[in-house]
Amino acid sequence: MDNTIMLTDSHLLSILQLASPALPVGSYSYSEGLEMLVENGTIANHTHLKDWLKAELLSGAIRLEAAVMVRSQQSAKMGDVESLCRWNLWLSAARETEELRASSWQMGRSLIQLLGKLEPQIVPIANAVGNPCNYAIAFGIAIAHWQISIQAALLAYVHSWASNLITAGVKLIPLGQTAGQQLLLDLQPLFRVTALEILALEDDELACCSWGLSLASMQHETQYTRLFRS
């Protein structure tokens, strides 16, 4: 099967902007439990971080989040506000801890506000979803508006997620910048596999195994020294 993704220059620039670490949504302030995992020694080097990220891509909460992003894109494309609101509520309920839910809501709110200023046409559908709006929902609305290929959007979504956590790992473990970039390169084949698997998921197959993330997130709340918000 040919998995080549064709993008116009305009679409490519749009997805690069949306997935950029410079996007002012606050993603840099979250470690998704890594801060606690580094402190307790669960993640202490490049190999540990790679194994953690691989496990999350194979069975963790990022798959659930990305799958909801796909559904939000489809709903926004059809103008199905009822479906958008349902998936937004569903994802909020699926968040295992208050910190993880709060981070999704904060980033979603920031992205919706930004999109409203950049693309005022998005405002009616964003207002219909309301607040709180999860980040995956806001991302789906954006790619639907910009008519970006869902395959390209999925790759950008998981790549952006991994880039953020690798950056956190570079600071916390610490790792060298080169080691961080090598890790991102090593994960590229898994990004592609994960994106294809997520696209094939039916609604009743949406699930994840992320108890390690949940436990780390809950402990982070009472961690003595913190650099990140989660």
From TrEMBL:
Protein name: Urease accessory protein UreF
Family: Belongs to the UreF family.
A GO term from the CC aspect: cytoplasm
Membrane-crossing segments per the record: none
Single GO term (MF): nickel cation binding
Lineage: Bacteria, Bacillati, Cyanobacteriota, Cyanophyceae, Nostocales
Quaternary state and interactors: UreD, UreF and UreG form a complex that acts as a GTP-hydrolysis-dependent molecular chaperone, activating the urease apoprotein by helping to assemble the nickel containing metallocenter of UreC. The UreE protein probably delivers the nickel.
Gene that encodes the chain: ureF
Organism per entry: Nostoc sphaeroides CCNUC1
UniProt keywords, alphabetically: Chaperone, Cytoplasm, Nickel insertion
HAMAP family, alphabetized: UreF
Function: Required for maturation of urease via the functional incorporation of the urease nickel metallocenter.
Subcellular location: Cytoplasm
